[in-house]
């Protein structure tokens, strides 16, 4: 053992994950247990009718089906890479449902569930991972920004956007997504300082999925992440990220407070990335299979299904219909991906600037002329 | 109306006019409000336009530029002040990975009309990180435009043009020339922002400069004239995009070209310009394009900066070498 061993020793690879309700573990807002039992929370409640419950279930199932299909497409060589949301469906669908139409979301690169709820077509997300473009959707029209790959950079954009909301005296809020790894980034800390200092209407929604690729959460933080908020001067709350109702309740409340001028909130959605970081990753190198098995017992979809079935809100026909809809969606995604045209070569140049400078226009013209010389099948 | 203004005051008036003309213009930076900026470029603006439009930010450059991105997405036109050139690097990530790329990433759906004002260059006897010339980093980044002004008139008009422009612009201010004075026609017609300008005609050697080195080049031309040599001095004004057609026309006449900048010569703007001039004017050149610039060292302590910075003599030395070919 070296003198530094005390800083590298892994005591509990996923603090609180094994037993979030044991004494000594941080509190965690939960409204639907892993067994599908509705429970009350003193501070958070959610008023969802049967129809919305079925809609939540539908979204959870469909985004997972989309995710499975995208992973398969990547394995078959149709996508360059895919960042799976497996296990994080409740965090994303719950957060997405909490957004109002005029709110704005700033995702990382894994918020496919939020994209879905915001009405972004899956193929417009797939196009990014296929290498056709950087995301095909309109961020303004959907209220869902383009994916940001540099970790945490979007939290500052969200905060600046919220400063604009303040100046416009608009009743909107901004939802900034980030992961547990991002909390170590300087820019994320700057965003929280700005948001607090200016009381900006932004909610930081951190999906703590326990790993930043391979590095476990305790390398990022020695305190539960939601407790960080106190140091910045705004509330922090840990919610069961696999409980779509609790996520919805907590995020709705935070966004409402932001719209009401009460400033930011930090939400730690405690969850687990059940798949790999991306299709290029191999999680067997850094985590135990038993850990995954434990988290499977807290599956975000199974508990909703159990609750819907037990309470009679949905029947076997409903579940079968959703399954069938999922298969149709998967087929549409598959066909749409295979049919997706490659972009024109001149796309390289055409959107770099609002006003293309003459030297770039000259390069573009050279490019066109060069490639024209290959017509007739010389170059494919 | 024509007024005699320093570059600093011209920037102040230009910013004032931009704030008046467009309610979406927001100034952000460290100490720019109550203090008026460490160089007083924003003096009096917060008092007149309020602290929502002239924002004293927390002390973090990435935060200044990163929040500007969000404001721009919301329809604002942020003008960020980076207090000194050497402090832009904490914001480098936001500038290079976000500001520069969002228009392309969004396939033109999101414009980034952001101006990053940076007092740049040496010569003021400062400590480390206060005298740097980082322009090549930004000129190398597709998606950014880079402008370097050298006169009060260009400062006054250029800052307004940059703020009105739809693309992000790194706006470099020659800090050691902030106190240089000249007459500015406040109602005149400005020159285009992305255009170089012949500031002194000549026949023997074409000398290119921008920002603080324009004055040095003009001093060199004056001294050369006394020795019977005629230097043509071109103020590049814009670093990205480069406007080189006037340069090519000049070099085709003179056959000789010297590029002057404070930044280190290796992979500096002079390298790019030398390549371009050579590609385009090869048959007209009587000598290789020569570069006068900073050495490939960190910017030195101020007692050594006169040795580091290009001055009249080093420009003339390069002119001599060019003429000697």
Our measurement of the CA-to-CA distance between the termini of chain B, rounded to an integer number of angstroms, reads: 48 Å
CATH topology of the largest domain in chain A: Rossmann fold
Rg of chain B (C-alpha, Å)? 19 Å
CATH homologous superfamily assignment of the largest domain in chain B:
Thiamin diphosphate (ThDP)-binding fold, Pyr/PP domains
What average pLDDT do the residues of chain A reach? 93
**Residue share in helix of chain A:** 40-55%
Order of the strands making up the biggest sheet of chain A: 1-2-3-7-6
CATH architecture designation of the largest domain in chain B: 3-Layer(aba) Sandwich
Largest interface, counted with CB-CB under 8 A?
A-B, 45 and 46 residues
Q: How much is the radius of gyration of chain A in Å?
A: 22 Å
Main structural class of chain A: alpha/beta
What is the chains' assembly state? heterodimer
Strand order of the biggest β-sheet of chain B: 3-2-4-5-7-6-12
Taking the alpha carbons of the first and last residues of chain A, their distance comes to 59 Å
Q: In what range is the share of β-strand residues of chain B? A: 15-25%
* Whole-number tally of structural domains of chain A: 2
The CATH architecture name of the largest domain in chain A reads 3-Layer(aba) Sandwich
Order of helices and strands of chain B: EHEHEHEHHEHEHEEEEHEEHEHEHH
Describe the 3D structure.
The complex is a heterodimer of chains A (380) and B (325). In chain A, 44% of the residues lie in helices and 8% in strands. Chain A is α/β, with parallel strands linked by helices. Chain A has two domains: 24-339, 3-Layer(aba) Sandwich (Rossmann fold); 344-380. In chain A, the strands form two sheets. In chain A, strands 1-2-3-7-6 form a five-stranded parallel sheet, with helices on both faces. Chain A starts with a helix and ends in an 8-residue tail after the last helix. Chain B has two domains: 2-185, 3-Layer(aba) Sandwich (Rossmann fold); 197-324, Rossmann fold (3-Layer(aba) Sandwich), CATH 3.40.50.920. Chain B starts with a strand and ends with a helix. The mean pLDDT of chain B is 98. In chain B, the strands form three sheets. Chain B has a seven-stranded mixed sheet with strand order 3-2-4-5-7-6-12, sandwiched between helices. Chain B has helices at residues 7-21, 45-49, 61-73, 92-99, 102-105, 135-139, 152-164, 213-226, 245-254, 269-281, 305-308, 312-324; strands at 2-6, 25-29, 54-56, 77-81, 115-120, 145-148, 169-174, 181-185, 197-200, 205-209, 231-235, 238-240, 257-264, 290-294. In chain B, 36% of the residues lie in helices and 21% in strands. With 325 residues, chain B is α/β, with parallel strands linked by helices. The chains are: A alpha/beta (380), B alpha/beta (325). At the A-B interface, α7, α8 and α15 of A face α3, α4 and α5 of B.
């Amino acid at each position: 053992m070296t003198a530094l061993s005390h800083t590298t020793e892994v005591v509990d690879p996923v603090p609180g994950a094994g037993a979030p309700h044991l004494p000594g573990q941080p509190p965690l807002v939960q409204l639907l247990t892993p067994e599908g039992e509705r429970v009350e929370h003193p501070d958070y409640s959610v008023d969802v009718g049967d129809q919305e419950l079925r809609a939540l279930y539908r979204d959870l199932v469909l985004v997972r089906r989309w995710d499975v299909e995208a992973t398969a497409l990547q394995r078959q060589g149709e996508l360059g890479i895919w960042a799976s949301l497996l296990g994080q469906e409740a965090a994303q669908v719950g957060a997405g449902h909490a957004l109002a139409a005029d709110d704005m979301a700033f995702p990382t690169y894994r918020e496919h569930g939020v994209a879905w709820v915001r009405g972004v077509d899956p193929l417009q997300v797939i196009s990014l991972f296929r290498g056709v473009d950087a995301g095909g959707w309109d961020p303004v029209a959907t209220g869902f920004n383009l994916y940001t790959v540099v970790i945490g950079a979007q939290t500052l954009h969200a905060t600046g956007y919220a400063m604009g909301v303040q100046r416009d005296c608009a009743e909107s809020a901004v939802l900034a997504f980030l992961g547990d790894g991002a909390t170590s980034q300087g820019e994320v800390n700057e965003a929280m300082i700005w948001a607090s200092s200016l009381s900006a209407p932004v909610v930081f929604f951190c999906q703590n999925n326990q790993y930043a690729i391979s590095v476990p959460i305790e390398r990022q933080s020695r305190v539960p992440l939601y407790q960080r908020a106190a140091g910045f001067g705004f509330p922090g709350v840990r919610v069961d990220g696999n409980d779509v109702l609790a996520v919805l309740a907590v995020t709705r409340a935070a966004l409402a407070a932001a719209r009401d001028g009460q400033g930011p909130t930090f939400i730690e959605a405690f969850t687990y990335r059940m798949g790999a970081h991306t299709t290029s990753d191999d999680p067997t190198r850094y985590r135990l299979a038993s850990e995954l098995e434990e988290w499977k017992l807290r599956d975000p979809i199974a508990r909703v299904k159990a609750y819907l079935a037990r309470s009679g809100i949905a029947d076997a026909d409903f579940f079968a219909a959703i399954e069938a809809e999922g298969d149709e969606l998967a087929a549409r995604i598959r066909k749409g991906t295979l049919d997706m045209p490659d972009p024109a070569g001149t796309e390289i140049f055409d959107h770099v600037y609002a006003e293309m400078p003459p030297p770039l226009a000259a390069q573009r013209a050279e490019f066109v002329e060069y490639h024209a010389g290959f017509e007739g099948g010389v170059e494919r | 109306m024509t007024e005699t203004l320093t570059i600093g005051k011209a920037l102040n008036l230009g910013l004032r006019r931009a704030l008046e003309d467009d309610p979406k213009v927001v100034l952000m930076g460290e100490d720019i409000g109550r203090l008026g900026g460490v160089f007083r470029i924003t003096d009096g603006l917060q008092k007149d336009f309020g602290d929502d439009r002239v924002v004293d930010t927390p002390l973090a450059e990435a935060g200044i530029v990163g929040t500007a991105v969000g404001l721009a997405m919301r329809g604002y036109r942020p003008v960020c002040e980076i207090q000194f050139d050497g402090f832009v690097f904490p914001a480098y990530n936001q500038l290079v990975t976000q500001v520069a790329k969002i228009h392309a990433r969004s396939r033109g759906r999101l414009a980034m009309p952001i101006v990053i004002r940076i007092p740049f260059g040496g010569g003021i006897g400062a400590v480390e990180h206060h005298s740097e010339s980082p322009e090549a980093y930004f000129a190398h980044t597709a998606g950014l435009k880079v402008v370097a002004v050298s006169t009060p008139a260009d400062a006054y008009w250029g800052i307004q043009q940059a703020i009105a422009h739809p693309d992000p612009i790194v706006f470099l201010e020659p800090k050691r020339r902030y106190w240089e004075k000249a007459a500015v026609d406040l109602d005149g017609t400005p020159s285009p922002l992305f255009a170089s300008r012949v500031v002194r005609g000549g026949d023997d050697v074409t000398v290119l400069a921008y920002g603080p080195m324009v004055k040095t080049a003009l001093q060199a031309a004056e001294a050369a004239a006394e020795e019977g040599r005629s230097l043509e001095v071109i103020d590049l004004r814009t670093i990205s995009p480069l406007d080189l057609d006037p340069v090519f026309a000049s070099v085709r006449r003179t056959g000789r070209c010297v590029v002057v900048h404070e930044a280190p010569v290796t992979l500096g703007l002079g390298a790019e310009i030398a390549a371009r001039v050579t590609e385009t004017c090869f048959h007209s050149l009587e000598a290789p394009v020569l570069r006068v610039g900073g050495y490939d060292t960190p910017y030195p302590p101020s007692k050594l900066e006169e040795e580091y910075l290009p001055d009249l003599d080093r420009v003339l030395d390069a002119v001599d070498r060019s003429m000697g070919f």
